Amino acid sequence: MPKERGQKVIVSNRKARHDYAILDTYECGLVLVGTEVKSLREGKASLADAFATVDDGEVWLRNVHIPEYTQGTWTNHTPRRTRKLLLHRREIEKLIGKTKEGGLSLVPLSMYFKDGKVKVEIALAKGKKAYDKRQTLAKRDADRDIRKAMGRALKGKFD
């Protein structure tokens, strides 16, 4: 059986980029049981309320919902169990220092298969205030209008 190559996104947390200012991202491995991997291969997962914590020098992913595998038996997994993230010791120590500064959170951005292994992209993020979110939306709308106007100008269609 040939080994998978490349990257296949399972689920992404689009709301995280809206609610948080992303400062730094990390790619982590994930400790899973067999039925979780099978359920993920079907493309079923939710990062809606998920977050990561650092406890006793280890990073844990909490509140990720991976539904039970439909073909599973009594050995099926618990859908919202706490899962361990795999990072290098240097990265964990850096995360411990940054999260203790205060105001920073660890938020999962996406979960994907990379060369047949499940990976999670987590971000060191700072929560945005309501006015920051409005500014981001206004800037995006203004950029879109500018691109439209530039496109029209290049085609010779002026208003």
Automatic annotation (TrEMBL):
Alphabetized Gene3D superfamilies for the sequence: 2.40.280.10
GO biological process: trans-translation; trans-translation-dependent protein tagging
Pfam family name, one: SmpB
Stored InterPro entries: SmpB, SsrA-bd_prot, SsrA-bd_prot_CS
UniProt GO cellular component terms: cytosol
Family: Belongs to the SmpB family.
Primary role: Required for rescue of stalled ribosomes mediated by trans-translation. Binds to transfer-messenger RNA (tmRNA), required for stable association of tmRNA with ribosomes. tmRNA and SmpB together mimic tRNA shape, replacing the anticodon stem-loop with SmpB. tmRNA is encoded by the ssrA gene; the 2 termini fold to resemble tRNA(Ala) and it encodes a 'tag peptide', a short internal open reading frame. During trans-translation Ala-aminoacylated tmRNA acts like a tRNA, entering the A-site of stalled ribosomes, displacing the stalled mRNA.
NCBIfam families, per database record: PRK05422.1 (NF003843), smpB (TIGR00086)
Protein name, entry field: SsrA-binding protein
